[in-house]
Structures are given as structure tokens and as C-alpha cells.
Amino acid sequence: MTTVSGSSKSLMPAVLVKEYAYCPRYAYFMLFLNGVDRITESMRSSLESHVEHYRDVVINLCNGYSVYFEYHVGSNSLGIHGVIDAVCVGEEVIVVDLKPLSRVTKRSLMGRHRHFLYQVVAYSMIAEEVFKGGVKRAYILAKDGPLEIRITPVLKREVVGIINELRRMVMREDLPRNMAEGWKCNYCVFKRFCLPMRDAMVR
Length: 203
Prior knowledge:
Elements: E1 12-13, H1 15-22, H2 24-32, H3 41-53, H4 55-62, E2 66-75, E3 80-89, E4 93-99, H5 114-131, E5 137-142, E6 145-150, H6 153-172, H7 182-187, H8 191-202
Parallel strand pairs: 1-3, 4-5
Antiparallel strand pairs: 2-3, 3-4, 5-6
Helix pairs in contact: 1-2, 1-5, 1-6, 5-6
């Protein structure tokens, strides 16, 4: 387990990259309603059980490299910090992000699961800073098995763009415009706050 460089209080949670990509307003409410770090005992137990269940799969993916689970990392240059589900360290560094309840495919990462893609890229960029080397690939370990992700310059630029938008949102405390598709709103825990605001703006 690594110590986050710099003060974590000055860094944004990396999970906000995923949430902002999913819906900017969701990230706003997570941040300003103090929901980012709200993990119940049942949630923590579920996370731990998933890590334990997939431990052998992760070790096989790492192919003899050292494996660190629930690895705390932070990046002063990016301004984000978080916990990587697993990281393989050897001739190269490989990030593994667990999504055991989701059916993720290469195609869905271009659409409804694009936010998962940005999350693993963000963690890979932090890992590059922590381990002082390039991260060329990562894995999303989903319900139907692992998906290899190539960490490209284009994806990195897109993640940096999201981080910059997040930083502006935090500094200005501006409520983002509603960009989510309707099906996302149906499942959102913040819809009781968001939908009345959206309806008022429409009027």
C-alpha cells in the first residue's frame, strides 16, 4: 500500500472522473452533498468479498508480477487520488479495475459504459506517476471476464479534459447542465434534487 503524495485533502477523488463522465450533475451532487466517500459497512463487505473472489483471476492476469490489492494512490499533477482495486508491478505496470456486477464489452465501453473506461484510464495515469513509468494497458474485470484496455494518448487527453471540467465545477460551485440520458435519471439516487431543478430551468 502506498502513501498518497501530497495532502489527499487537496486532491479530488478519482471516482469523480467516472461519475462526471456518466453525468456531470451526478458528480456535482456526490461532491457537494458529501456522497463521494460515503461507504456503508455492507458496501465495504461487498467490495472485500469481490476482491477475494477475483483474487486468483487477478493474480493470473498479472502473470508472475507482484500484485497489490486496494492500492491507495494520488497524483499531484492530475489533482486526483483514489484506491486501485489491484495493480500488477513487474516489467510493466498494469491496473486492474473490478466491475463484477456489470456486463461490460468492448462495444459497451464506447457507449453506456464509457465512464468505466475513463475511470481505469485515470487510475492508470496516476499509476504512471507513482511508479515512474508508462502504463500501456489495463484490465476491466467484469462479470463475463477480463477486458484488456489499451491506454492511448487520446484517452489520456479525454480524461485530462474531464478533470479540468471537474476542477472548474469545484471552483465555481456551478450546477452543470443536465446531460444525462433519461434512463440514467430513472436509476439516480439524486433525482429528487435534480429533476425539479431541470423542470424549473425548462420553464
